[in-house]
Write a structure and sequence with these properties.
Layout: E1 4-9, H1 14-25, E2 29-35, H2 44-47, E3 57-58, H3 61-68, E4 72-75, H4 82-89, E5 96-98, H5 105-117, E6 121-124, H6 130-143, E7 148-155, H7 165-175, E8 198-200, E9 203-209, E10 215-223, E11 226-234, H8 241-250, E12 256-259
Parallel strand pairs: 1-2, 1-4, 2-3, 4-5, 5-6, 6-12, 7-9
Antiparallel strand pairs: 7-10, 8-9, 10-11
Helix pairs in contact: 6-7
Length: 265
């Protein structure tokens, strides 16, 4: 059985480089093509800290798919372009693994329909770290008993969307177990707009963007005389690799839109 041929879209970015190195090291897959609007012509092997491998970054996604015949596309681009990337890739019946967050429900519905039309699958997850999946699951369980909750997520200062996809997914899971209500003082006010964070069905979410962070999320529950904090820290991007490799290996087992790493466990 041959190795899985993977196209990395967003190969020049931090996540693209880190995950490319992991895919190159995996014994059952190889990088068929690397695409980005930055770093065109750069050797991918050198970019990930290895030896030159003769695989240069190109800027045309459709041409790269046509020329390299990948079996799976991995997208680590940006919320602004990921939908158009999928519109380009799915007509090739190419399964897509997406680590880019920010798509809304109508856009996800379009992706699902397009994937089914071309008899392939798109896998979305807000977080490839197995620990983050467990953090979200534990938070959902806790919400049954601790309805007063706030989410604090911290990322590097180059992250474009806020709150993070992981925070949104956490709040959605919590909402399945928590009746909607407004927490905090009934007459509270903000002297600086936004000081109390974003509001999701009465629960609050706060986004921190600072250099030095990779990804950290705390889910803080408060009750009479006690606090419960569930926290996950991504120390470096290596923690995302096992989840990504799992998704790549399982893509051919699905059809349509698949949401969340927990669906693969």
């Amino acid at each position: 059985m041959g190795r899985i041929r993977v196209l990395i879209n967003g190969a020049y970015g931090k996540m693209g480089r880190s995950m490319s190195a992991g895919i190159i090291a995996a014994g059952d897959m190889e990088i068929a093509a690397a695409v980005d609007i930055q770093g065109i012509g750069r050797d991918l092997g050198l970019l990930v800290g290895g030896e030159p491998n003769g695989l240069s970054i190109t800027g045309d996604l459709a041409a790269a798919i046509h020329a390299s015949k990948p079996e799976v596309l991995v997208d680590f681009t940006s919320p602004q372009v990921v939908l158009n990337n999928l519109r380009t890739a799915l007509p090739f019946s190419l399964p897509c693994v997406v680590g880019t967050t920010g798509l809304k429900e109508p856009e996800l519905a379009e992706v699902d329909a397009l994937a089914r039309q071309h008899n392939t699958a798109v896998f979305f997850t807000p977080n490839f770290a197995l620990g983050a999946v467990l953090m979200m699951r534990f938070a959902q369980d806790a919400a049954r008993y601790f309805p007063n909750v706030e989410v604090i997520e911290r990322h590097h200062d180059q992250k474009l969307d806020a709150p993070s996809g992981t925070a949104v997914a956490t709040l959605e899971l919590i909402a399945e177990k928590r009746e909607q209500f407004v927490q905090g003082a009934a007459c509270e006010s903000e002297s600086i707009a936004g000081a109390r964070g974003g509001d999701f069905q009465g629960a609050r979410v706060h986004s921190v963007r600072l250099p030095g962070y990779v990804a950290t999320q705390e889910v803080v529950f408060g009750s009479q005389g006690q606090l419960l904090t569930i926290r996950h820290d991504a120390i470096n991007r290596d923690c995302f690799l096992p989840g990504l490799l799992l998704a790549i290996r399982k893509m051919k087992s699905f059809n349509g839109l698949v949401m969340g790493l927990e669906k693969l466990l």
